[in-house]
Amino acid sequence: MSVQVLIPTPLQVHTDNQASVSVEASSVGELIQALETSFPGVRGRLRDEKGNLRRFLNYYVNSEDIRFLDNEATPLKAGDEVSIVPAVAGG
């Protein structure tokens, strides 16, 4: 099942400067692995050294924050759109 992934500008250097890519995945966790398969090295930008999702990146499936769904176990279906959004902080 093909899922559209919106890549933030700072990470596009790791996706051949593509702002949007399609991957086959049935969960957010599988999506990250599919991105790594297509773009070796991108996993290190999405996961920390312990393998957890990086805290400064937010993931949305069809505009729903995965933290309020099933985190990386959040299921995906054909046609879903996943947005990776860097956290913004200010003072």
Can you describe this structure?
The protein is of the alpha+beta class. The chain has one domain (2-86): Beta-grasp domain (Ubiquitin-like (UB roll), Roll), CATH 3.10.20.30. Helix content is 16%, strand content 25%. The protein contains two helices and five strands. It is globular and about 40 Å long.
Key terms:
5 strands, 91 residues, alpha+beta, Ubiquitin-like (UB roll), 2 helices
TL;DR of this structure?
By secondary structure, this protein is an alpha+beta fold.
List the helices and strands and how they pair.
Layout: E1 2-6, E2 20-24, H1 28-38, H2 43-46, E3 57-61, E4 64-65, E5 81-86
Parallel strand pairs: 1-5
Antiparallel strand pairs: 1-2, 3-4, 3-5
CATH class: Alpha Beta
- What is the radius of gyration computed over CA atoms, rounded to a whole number of angstroms? 12 Å
Fraction of residues in H or I helices = 10-25%
Number of self-contained structural domains:
1
Structural class: alpha+beta
| Main pleated sheet | 5 strands, mixed
Global geometry: globular
> Helix and strand succession?
EEHHEEE
Strand order of the largest sheet: 2-1-5-3-4
From the N-terminal CA to the C-terminal CA, the straight-line distance is 42 Å
Q: Total helix count?
A: 2
Please name the CATH topology: Ubiquitin-like (UB roll)
Number of distinct beta strands: 5
CATH architecture: Roll
Task: Please state roughly what percent of the residues sit in beta strands, choosing from under 5%, 5-15%, 15-25%, 25-35%, 35-45% or over 45%.
Answer: 25-35%
> Oligomeric state of the chains?
single chain
What is the overall pLDDT average? Answer: 95
CATH superfamily: Beta-grasp domain
Give the low-pLDDT segments.
none
